Amino acid sequence: VRSAVEGLVERDTALVDRVLGGDVPINQLHIEIDSRCFKLLALHQPMAVDLRAIVAAVKINTDLERVGDLAINIAEAVRRYMRHAPVKELIDIPRMADIAQGMLRDSLDSYVRQDISLAQRVLNEDDELDALKTQVFRDLLTFMLQDPSTIEPSLDLILISRHLERIGDHATNIAEDVIFMVSARDVRHHAGEVGAS
Amino acid sequence: VRSAVEGLVERDTALVDRVLGGDVPINQLHIEIDSRCFKLLALHQPMAVDLRAIVAAVKINTDLERVGDLAINIAEAVRRYMRHAPVKELIDIPRMADIAQGMLRDSLDSYVRQDISLAQRVLNEDDELDALKTQVFRDLLTFMLQDPSTIEPSLDLILISRHLERIGDHATNIAEDVIFMVSARDVRHHAGEVGAS
Predict the structure, then answer these.
(1) Mind listing the pLDDT tens digit for each residue in B156-181?
(2) Do A173 and A189 meet the contact criterion of CB atoms below 8 Å apart?
(3) How far is B32 from chain A (nearest CA, A)?
(4) ipTM for this model
(5) pLDDT, tens digit, for every residue of B88-116?
(6) Residue B177 CB-half CA count within 13 A
(7) CA distance to partner chain B, nearest, from residue A142 (Å)
(8) Does A44 contact chain B (CB < 8 Å)?
């Protein structure tokens, strides 16, 4: 994700190209982690927080694999974008990338440390990402309406902002799983206590 | 999903409005299914195919909840789209909706019946959905370049086509989980045998 957005800002084709195809090790880990989780469930029959931690790992594993796919989607959009003249100075998209990466890092740290308050912070940051996405869309719509030659590259920037927002969504999923893992409290859909412990 | 796209084709505001907010029962079921799966895992310590079926249920549960969110995203885009004159006759988007709904139904049937060949069929259909998404994008880009007044509504149609493609992605996830559940064979990332049975 970092390389793809850095490649966009610096117009660095080589950097972007390294992202494309970079999901092979992620895909291998995806399969390996799933396999290990199933073995743990089958062999050790864990209970309560251990059970929730392993099921959370299966779900987080899926989220991370999708983040890898989204990094590639971003890189593909950056490659198309670089075939045109730059539409505008990029401010909001690098900002979105910073927030999304921070959310992802915090959500994973919260899993490792079983830290509910850190997970909660991730949930709060999602709104800012959403606001920036709307802002990017509005700015680019103005450009497109004024000058049709900016339509194609603007569409790629809009796509990139949406991919970044979806990375934030995955971080949110992970944070929700962590809160459930630690507290057996389901924070999705503003639910109350539905403990499995 | 069906109501949102029917509302788009028929320009039926009432139908679209019923979709918005229609995720409350889905969200309740999401929480309840998760809770039941954890109880099954904790109380019955299932093995092999039973274990894989329950973990698959946890993952499918997440996929279906996201499909509900996407139906709402589609309905929101339809509402915005209807504020403008129609850009074009809609052919590819209803076709995409049919395919995505068919994939979703088949993927769930394949889970219930533990039917690998049906799950495999779902995986094959994803390419058609992807091709239609590209077609929709190209058509609308042409309209936008010719007539800037079509930019805003065209963007919403592009978004709708991407939401439908993501529904197909969720059906694909479910189908992959079914194949793993039944055969302990991981078909993601063209992986070989990594059985957990």
Answers:
(1) 999 999 999 999 999 999 999 999 99
(2) no
(3) 8
(4) 0.86
(5) 999 999 999 999 999 999 999 999 999 99
(6) 28
(7) 10
(8) no
